[in-house]
Write a structure and sequence with these properties.
127 residues, mainly beta, Jelly Rolls, six-stranded antiparallel beta sheet, three-stranded antiparallel beta sheet, 1 helix, globular
C-alpha cells in the first residue's frame, strides 16, 4: 500500500497545460502505471499532438468541457467523460469551455512526457 499526499505531487508546466505527476515509476518505483492531474486553461490546446508508444492512456474529465482529437477525428468531452486513448493513437485536447478543464490521466504501463511521440507539423493548430 502507498498513500500519496498532494504535497508529494511533482509539478510540470507544459505547452497548453499544467501537470502534476501524482504517481510514476521514476519517483515512486511503481512499475504498473503512472498517474497525473492536468489543468488546461480556457481556450488552450494541449500541444503538440502526440502519441504514446507501448502505453494506453485513460483520461477522466473532472471539470470543464472541450474536444479531444484522436487520429484527426473530433470528439466532444465534458465533466465525467472517460476516454481511452490506445497506444500509438495521435491525440490532443482543446478546452472550448468557459473555464479551466481538469483531467486525471492514467497511463498503463507507465509513461512520461519524455517518451511521447510528437507531431510538430503545426503546434498552434495541431494540423
Amino acid at each position: 500500500m502507498k498513500i500519496i499526499n498532494k504535497a508529494d505531487w511533482r509539478y510540470k508546466n507544459l505547452p497548453g497545460r499544467e501537470m502534476w505527476k501524482i504517481l510514476d515509476k521514476d519517483n515512486d518505483g511503481i512499475e504498473s502505471m503512472s498517474v497525473c492531474l492536468v489543468k488546461i486553461p480556457k481556450g488552450e490546446i494541449v500541444r503538440p499532438e502526440h502519441a504514446h508508444k507501448e502505453t494506453d492512456e485513460f483520461i477522466y474529465i473532472i471539470h470543464g468541457n472541450g474536444e479531444i482529437y484522436i487520429n484527426k477525428k473530433k470528439y466532444e468531452i465534458f465533466k465525467n467523460t472517460g476516454i481511452l486513448v490506445q497506444e500509438m493513437e495521435m491525440h490532443y485536447i482543446k478546452n472550448t469551455g468557459n473555464s479551466e478543464m481538469e483531467a486525471l490521466c492514467i497511463f498503463v504501463p507507465p509513461s512520461s512526457v519524455e517518451k511521447y511521440i510528437l507531431n510538430h507539423k503545426d503546434e498552434k493548430t495541431n494540423n
